[in-house]
Amino acid sequence: MQPKPLDTAPSVHALIGAELRYHREKKGMSQGEVGRLLFLTGAFIGMLESGTRRMRPEIALKLDEILDSGGFFFRVCAALKDLRQPDQSIEAVKAEQNAKRIQEYAPQHIPDILQTGAYAQAVLHSGLPTAAEEAINELFTPVLERAKMLQSPEPTVWTVLDEAVLQRMIGGPAVMAEALRHIAELGRRRRIVVQVFPFAAGGHPAIDGALKLMAFSDAPTLAYLKCFASGQLVDDPATVSQYEFAFNLIGASALSPSDSLDLIESMARHYELKSRRTLNLSSVLLCKPEHIEPDPDHGSTPDESRGEKPPPTGSSPCPTDQKSQRK
User: Which residues have C-beta within 8 Å of that of residue 129, sequence separation ≥ 6?
Assistant: First the structure.
């Protein structure tokens, strides 16, 4: 079977991966054989070759020995170490698709895989207020595709939502009500574990930004740090371990899953009531008050004691203006 062509466009790491494949095949070794010599899986070597995993210096040093690459991989990794990290959001999305477990702390808005269509569009429009509809649609479709991940039994998802996510009304009350009902339904079905970190709990280790941890069956855990218009993948084991500890502390200080679902459903009801009040108010503002011709003999309102009746009210909440017809 022919190996899958490498996509070398997304990052420098993909270019390094292409070189790794070249040296491995030149040596006549399979991914599994190289992996066993490194105490890694063949699948992880494949991730290195595709550029979805960054080659660390200690791995590069061993690869140079195994593949007789003349120190190439170690030199490249050392040169890249001090370079500014580029946006790695694309690599993070690819990694997420292969994850067996996702743990995420969301401080500002509902994570992509938990979003409804209306909420996702509202997030995109708020982030790109002047973008053309075609540009929004190009970004919107991948978000919906990522949400379909939850139609399968994997990955396991554990999400901690900051209370600000519930309070921040993105897209209006109807959109928020639908979005929160969707999360609650996923939680009630036990498809996800969801917690709310309340304002009253105070500070926490990830207070400066979003945090996502992705665990795999055949590779070490990755951490993904999201910030404005950028994101960074972290694969250093010691650093990832610190992020795992931080997430556990956040979960320990958050509301229990049961109490969190109660709060989410309560907020959904709040937005539903707010949406109905908004609709009713809009109906009232669009209606014109009934116009009654003044009676020259008895004032501006009908005198019911004289058998006069007010003009009939139609069944519509917004009756059409009609002038009294006198004979």
Answer: none
Residue 151 has which token pair? 């139609």
Q: Rounded CA gap, 213 and 266, in Å?
A: 29
Helical (H) or strand (E) element with 194: strand 192-197
| 3-class secondary-structure state, position 296 | coil
**Predicted pLDDT at 133:** 83
Where the chain has pLDDT below 50, the residues are 1-9, 292, 298-299, 313-317, 319-327
For residue 214, what are the β-bridge partners? 102, 222
Report whether 232 contacts 243 (CB < 8 A): no
| One-letter amino acid for residue 143 of the chain | V
Report the SS3 class of residue 122: helix
160's enclosing H/E stretch is strand 156-162
Q: Is the dihedral of CA 246, 250, 256, 258 positive or negative?
A: negative
Distance, CA of 6 to CA of 93 (rounded, Å): 17
Residue 313, Cβ neighbours under 10 Å: how many? 9
C-alpha to C-alpha distance for 42 and 52, rounded to whole angstroms: 14
CA distance 30 to 25: 7
Per-residue pLDDT at 147: 86
Q: How many residues does the chain have?
A: 327
| 213: helix, strand or coil | strand
pLDDT of residue 86: 53
What is each CA distance from 306 to 151, 265, 297, 323, in whole angstroms? 70, 55, 12, 21
CB half-sphere exposure, 174, CA atoms < 13 A: 7
Q: Cβ of 181: how many Cβ atoms within 10 Å?
A: 18
